[in-house]
Amino acid sequence: MSNHTTPAQTVGPYLHIGLPWPDGPYAVTEGTAGAVWIRGTVTDGAGEPVGDALVETWQADPDGRFDHPDDPRGARSHPGFRGFGRCPTDVDGTFGILTLKPGSVPGPNGPQAPHIDVSLFARGMLHRVVTRVYFPEEEKANAADPVLRSIDDPDARDTLVARTAPDGYRFDIRIQGEDETVFFDI
User: Fold this and answer.
1) With the CA atoms of 71, 77, 78 and 83 taken in that order, what torsion angle do they form, in degrees rounded to the nearest 10?
2) Residue 2: per-residue pLDDT
3) CA 111 vs CA 5, 22, 63, 107, 114: distances in Å
């Protein structure tokens, strides 16, 4: 018997079958004090909506603590906060995650600005892509953030800063092309 290499496969459309999350887009329960929506649209290189993508978020709580065993401080001050959300896009490419705005987190070279880590899975991609959502009212923290500072082009950097919206924030993701969202090589 010989072992053969498995051919490469894209991450979609399996993601709609194999990646459901019981709490879906709710990193906190509805009605949680201070909860905000992060809403947006995923578009492809031609600007067309991607109706079969999956947006996944991971973040610290408002005190900059993670609900994870690797953070010994723990996210204890916000009952019901999970720090994780997963939302498939609809036919119009839209998604929404209900969460709490994160606090600043420690980094290897000082504090990082409040941000949400985002993974995007979609058809045609062999691997997920990873980006971040930063917040527009955090100008001073954003200016000092080592990840944002590592992006030389101000227009590219702006693709990581959400816009305020009536019920939270708007964060659109452009997979490629003009105004492409910055993705990180992790």
Assistant:
1) -10
2) 52
3) 43, 32, 12, 5, 9
E strand or H helix that includes residue 146: helix 146-149
Distances (CA, A) of 89 to 12, 86, 94, 96, 168: 12, 10, 5, 8, 18
pLDDT tens digits, one per residue of 4-24: 555 555 555 555 666 667 788
Question: What length does the chain have?
Answer: 186
* pTM score, whole prediction: 0.88
CA dihedral 169, 170, 173, 174 (to 10 degrees): -150
Q: What is the DSSP letter of 180?
A: P
Q: Tell me: the pLDDT tens digits for 94-109?
A: 999 999 999 999 888 8
Distance of CA 68 to the CA centre of its chain: 17
- Diameter over CA atoms, the chain: 61
- Cα angle 156, 107, 109; round to 5: 85
State which H helix or E strand residue 173 sits in.
Answer: strand 173-174
Preceding omega of 72 cis (within 30 degrees of 0): no
Give the residues across from 100 on adjacent strands.
Answer: 35
List pLDDT tens digits, range 21-71: 778 899 999 999 999 999 999 999 999 999 989 999 999 999 888 766 666
Angle at the Cα of 16 (from 159 to 55), degrees rounded to 5?
20
